[in-house]
Specification:
It is built from two helices and four strands. It is of the alpha+beta class.
Length: 136
Amino acid sequence: MAGLLRGGVRRRARSRALTLVLTLLALQLGQLVAPAWACGCGAMVPADARRVTVGREESVVRWDGTREQVVMRLTVRGDAERVAWIMPVPGRATVRLGDPDLFDELHDVTAPVHRDRYHFWPQDGDWPLVTGDGTA
């Protein structure tokens, strides 16, 4: 009888140990596949004990096959009068102020268009079946 009890205790201990090991392994694997936050704008570094935070970033990227042009708009808050902006680039870059109206124009061009349709199946004139009138 004592041998049966010891065998049952051993099996339960092995089962608990295996469950613990599998749980720890699952947690470790979960950390590997968890999404990571990415930021393409680099970093803003203020002087001394000042603080700077970026609340919103918008970027427009243009690639012509050989050169890449990135236009960015950042919403920045903080108490620093001057900051250094560090952005990783593959080679020497030219930095200048962009057109402040670019993003407003982009928002206007890409704004959703709301239309009421009173039929289920698309008909001529419904996107993408628009025929040559240039409204698409």
